[in-house]
């Protein structure tokens, strides 16, 4: 088991597009800002803002090529990410675990 974990850690250090424990912790922190009730649900309309505050590789913050885009274009890109990943809406809300799975 230790060898597998060591290899995973080494792989994560060499490929910045892989999701790390720190990336997931950042996701939790950003999510908490959009889920003040801590019920595990965020309004779907807030998804673009959430993704734009979430750093790469999970989100759009600091993503190469987005600096020059207008906010409207970034919102459209965030929505496309959600749709492409098959994210489900539940009465206009998205679930924590489902969004995390789509982004990973």
TrEMBL record:
Keywords for this entry? Glycoprotein, Ion channel, Ion transport, Repeat, Transport, Voltage-gated channel
Does the entry feature the keyword Glycoprotein, yes or no?
A: yes
Which is a Gene Ontology cellular component entry for this protein? voltage-gated calcium channel complex
UniProt cross-references to PROSITE patterns, sorted A to Z: EF_HAND_2
Q: Name one Pfam family in it.
A: GPHH
InterPro entries assigned: EF-hand-dom_pair, EF_hand_dom, GPHH_dom, VDCC_alpha-1_subunit
- Supply the name of the protein: EF-hand domain-containing protein
Q: Which organism is it from?
A: Prymnesium polylepis
Q: What is the lineage of its organism?
A: Eukaryota, Haptista, Haptophyta, Prymnesiophyceae, Prymnesiales
């Amino acid at each position: 088991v230790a060898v597998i974990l060591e290899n995973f850690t080494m792989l994560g250090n060499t490929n910045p597009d892989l999701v790390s424990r720190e990336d997931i912790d950042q996701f939790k922190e950003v999510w908490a800002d959009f889920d003040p009730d801590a019920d595990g649900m965020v309004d779907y309309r807030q998804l673009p803002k959430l993704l734009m505050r979430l750093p790469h590789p999970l989100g759009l913050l600091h993503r190469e090529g987005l600096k020059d885009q207008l906010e409207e274009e970034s919102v459209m890109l965030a929505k496309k990410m959600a749709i492409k990943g098959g994210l489900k809406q539940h009465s206009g809300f998205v679930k924590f675990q489902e969004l995390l799975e789509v982004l990973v």
